[in-house]
Amino acid sequence: MSDFPAIPGPPRIPPLSENEYTDKARGFFSIVEGPGGRSGGTKLNIVLTLAQHPDLAIPYFNFGRYIINFTTVPPRLRELVTLRAAWLYKSDYEWSQHAATAKRMGIPPVEIDAVKIGADAPIWSKHDRHVLRAVDQLHANTTIDDETWAGMAEHLDQRQLLDLLFIFGSYAMLAMVLNGVRVQKEAAK
Predict the structure, then answer these.
(1) CA quadruple 105, 108, 109, 113: dihedral positive or negative?
(2) For the segment 128-137, what is each residue's pLDDT rounded down to a tens digit?
């Protein structure tokens, strides 16, 4: 549970319905879901919404695939940054998806909950604290102070630092899109 109220009102850009699938949308589904996606589609509202504009969705998803599968940032840290972005931008959809991912990865619920507090939660290591503080600073000021940057640079190399910035930026942008178009969470099964 994210603690966010449901997004008010219906989706502003509705998920693509099955009778609206185009060849480009089916191509997007196959990129996201694998070969079965071309014929079977997807059940994810985010994918169905982005499928309204496959020319944008496909390159965006390919960038996102790098962030998820090929980033140099350790997976745990990637998820903490993603969750903090979701929390700061009040993205219920993003929070619920990534809280579930974090749990599957073995991130303890106490850490997931502490992301809501941010760098000031007492459970964080010095390194985690620097990273979460950097995310907060980017959100508030679009920059990072020298002390926080130096603290991150003690544990992350230049490639990881760049990846970390792009992870936050990517999920901040996605949160704004999800909130702006009112993508709804999938119905519980």
Answers:
(1) negative
(2) 999 999 999 9
